[in-house]
Amino acid sequence: MARTYASFPAIYELVREIPKGQVASYGMVASLLPGVTPRIVGFAMAGTPRGEGIPWQRVINSAGQISEREGASRQRTRLEEEGVTFKKPGKVDWKLYRWQGPSEAWLERHGIEFMDFLTIQADWPG
């Protein structure tokens, strides 16, 4: 049974902020949304509706890897098509590909002060 949460639309809105060629972890996305956990972000990515332009492939685990599951090879292919490369053990280099965060407009719409965002961002991988 697919799980759905009221937070899914907010998660999808935020994931749309991740540009081509960059990746974020489930935890990075969750850190910007109140009441959202990395697991909920994972459920949202697994249930991403088709045809809505949500770049689900850009969300990976905190180890910098694609989680082993159905669709993992498709996710890797999509990321590689965007220019993301993987090291030998299947990890991305956070220093090269880590998303730097949402736009100032997104932060403003969600009432997050820039200095507060920088504090959140300091805990992100990489």
Blueprint (SSEs and pairs):
Blueprint: H1 8-15, E1 24-25, H2 26-31, H3 38-46, E2 59-60, H4 72-81, H5 94-97, H6 104-109, H7 114-121
Parallel strand pairs: 1-2
Polypeptide structure, described:
Helix content is about 40%, strand content about 5%. It is mainly alpha-helical and about 130 residues long. It has one domain (about 10-120): Winged helix-like DNA-binding domain superfamily/Winged helix DNA-binding domain (Arc Repressor Mutant, subunit A, Orthogonal Bundle). A two-stranded parallel sheet has the order 1-2. The mean pLDDT is about 95.
What percentage of amino acids are in beta strands? under 5%
* Order of helix and strand elements from N to C terminus: HEHHEHHHH
Say which CATH homologous superfamily is assigned. Answer: Winged helix-like DNA-binding domain superfamily/Winged helix DNA-binding domain
Domains (count): 1
Q: Helical amount among residues, as a percent range? A: 40-55%
List keywords for this structure.
mainly alpha, Arc Repressor Mutant, subunit A, 126 residues, 7 helices, two-stranded parallel ribbon
Characterize this entry briefly:
By secondary structure, this protein is mainly alpha-helical. The chain has helices at residues 8-15, 26-31, 38-46, 72-81, 94-97, 104-109, 114-121, and strands at residues 24-25, 59-60.
